[in-house]
Amino acid sequence: MRVPAGLWLCAAALLLGACASLPHKPLIPVPPLALGADWKRTGVETPAVAGVPASLQALKPVQWVRTSYRQLDRMVLVQVFGMSTEASAFEARQKWRNEGNSTVFHKGNLFVVCSSETESMSILLEFTKLVENEWLRGGR
């Protein structure tokens, strides 16, 4: 029995469409339970990218992870935005407007914001190094 060429083409199109909807590897690694010797993770959220801050909306992030780390009475919020390209992550760093105590950096396709209402800038900079070296050490 001979199968018409149009049927093969239709089957190939359906297969390609199914592959496009397969789950993909997330851009952002899972946040570790602890950073350094004393910073403990207190929770993790993956908000919808539709709710990203206004300064990032035009860059169309594809993933967003928000988590907090606590050390005794200290608390730092970490937001990591997975961007489609490294250039987008760099541009996000350039456009970000710091509010209060916060530090930002980009590593590969990731744009990272660490902020705290209570910590000094020196503590925040030390914490940011932990995020970069222990959480995101693999780079992108």
Q: What shape does the CA trace take?
A: globular
Q: What order do the helices and strands follow?
A: HEEHEEHEEH
Mean pLDDT over the full residue set: 85
Content-based structural category: alpha+beta
Number of helices: 4
**Percent of residues in β-strands:** 25-35%
The separation of the N and C termini measures 50 Å
Count of beta strands: 6
**How many separate domains?**
1
User: Strand order within the widest sheet?
Assistant: 1-2-3-4-6-5
Which stretches are low in confidence, meaning pLDDT under 50 for 5 or more residues running? 10-16, 18-24
Largest sheet geometry: 6 strands, antiparallel
Q: Rg, please?
A: 20 Å
SSE topology:
Elements: H1 5-20, E1 34-35, E2 39-45, H2 54-57, E3 63-71, E4 74-82, H3 86-95, E5 102-107, E6 110-115, H4 121-135
In short:
It is built from 4 helices and 6 strands; from the N terminus they run αββαββαββα. It has helices spanning 5-20, 54-57, 86-95, 121-135, and strands at 34-35, 39-45, 63-71, 74-82, 102-107, 110-115.
Identify the notable features of this structure and list them briefly.
140 residues, alpha+beta, 4 helices
